[in-house]
Amino acid sequence: MFGKTIKDAPKDEVATNAKLLIRAGFIRREVSGVYNYLPLGIRVLNRISNIVREEMNAIGGQELLLSSLQNKESWETTGRWNSFDALFKLTSVLDHEYPLGPTHEEVVVPLAKQFINSYKDLPLAVYQIQTKFRDEKRAKSGILRGREFLMKDLYSFSTDVDQHEDFYNKVAEAYKKIFHRMGIGDRTYMTRASGGSFSKFSHEFQCLTEAGEDTIYITDEGKKEAVNKELGEDGGEGMRAVEVGNIFTLGTKFSDPYLTFKDEKGESHPAFMGSYGIGPARLMGVIAEAFSDDKGIVWPKEVAPFRVHLISLGQHSVLANRVYEKLVALGIETLYDDRDLRAGEKFADADLIGIPTRVVIGDKSADTETLEAKERNSEEVRNITLEQLLNELKG
Ligand code: ATP
Ligand code: MG
Question: Are residues 108 and 167 both part of a single domain?
């Protein structure tokens, strides 16, 4: 396997998520705030992205892929070439200047202008899952705050505020599903925050974690609602949280006067917009921190890099090979540790990597044709037959 576990994280890495993920062989740092994803890491990131993709498709979002090298003129038009403080500006050898995409309103609005003419074209929603670049001042939170990071950004175009609000509410419900599917639904709060160019408020989805940079006040535990402390409202006992997603009413800030449509009477209006972000890389870090113990990570099944961690001990590779082939044939994703190492070392690696089910083929298995199965989140070791194991996993 490309990527190995290590005993100690680099000394200058302070964030828990980065320490865990580096030790377990999921990521490696390139420069401050920039990480490489190793084979285990990209599997988790893809799992997270696919959950997001499925739920965005389910509400009618259409996926596309916008450029990272953007058009300077568009950023001058919106005034953000000079006002977006984390913008990376590139000067090419041909002496052209480019903004390196930190967000995509400047790309998506001119593009949408080519396809939106009439009220019959609306509502419309497009999204992408793509690498963003931001020159973040503080980049000490591992993959929670990168200078290069994956983001899902969706942009909606509506005729008016009512049509917009319908879609906004659909996205809010889709976000709740996404965070539930990833295992963090019970600790993620839809949080009222400042911002929104039309509305007074935007909504952030804040996940409780000690590593968070935000403080929220929970206003309704049952409905999972909160308010961000930055609003100045004192809701009592504050909780540390990190923003894993947000939904934002843009109104006509980016569309007026460029992106207009004709209503039933033939009159022109600017399209009413919203933008909606989720950070898959940040989520991976949040989940790794939230689900870990002193031995390593404990991935929820839905985002785990593999379903099964198969370990062969001693001279039992023939039986282990057979089990591996059965698992693969059934489409059960399996990491197979057939290294010639002591049991203790293999078990420690399995705990560190955090795959949900560990299956061990050792001396007992050879005699009795049973396997040792253990869930990462439990201490119980069970002796079961291969058939039993396969039935459980198929379920
Ligand atoms: P923050 O306040 O944490 O900087 P933001 O308000 O800049 O976030 P957006 O620009 O709306 O966030 O980005 C959408 C989503 O992308 C965020 O909710 C978060 O999940 C993720 N995100 C934003 N910045 C980063 C970053 N530097 N590294 C990783 N993920 C990020
Ligand atoms: Mg930011």
Answer: yes
Residue of 131, 150, 246, 275 with the most ligand 1 atoms within 8 Å of its CB, for mutation = 246
- Domain end, chosen from 270, 293, 316, is at 293
Q: Is residue 366 part of a domain?
A: yes
Residue nearest to atom 16 of ligand 1 (CA): 279
Q: Which amino acid is at 173?
A: E
Q: Quote the pLDDT of residue 31.
A: 95
Euclidean distance between CA atoms 355 and 335, whole angstroms: 9
Measured from the Cα of 279, ligand 1's closest atom is 20
From 259, 293, 327, give the residue that closes a domain.
Answer: 293
The band of 234, judged by pLDDT with boundaries at 50, 70 and 90, is low
Domains of the chain: total = 2
Q: Are residues 376 and 254 in the same domain?
A: no
Question: Alpha-carbon distance 142 to 121, whole Å?
Answer: 42
Chain segment 215-224, per-residue pLDDT in tens? 999 999 999 9
d(Cα 275, Cα 277) in Å, to the nearest integer?
Answer: 7
- Inform me whether the pLDDT recorded for 199 exceeds 80: no
Enter the DSSP assignment of 69.
B
Secondary structure (DSSP) of 136-189: -S---SGGGS-SEEEEEEEEEEESSHHHHHHHHHHHHHHHHHHHHHTT-GGGEE
| 327/276 same-domain check | no
Would residue 1 count as lying in a domain? no
Exposed / middle / buried, residue 180 (Cβ in 10 Å: 0-12, 13-18, 19+): middle
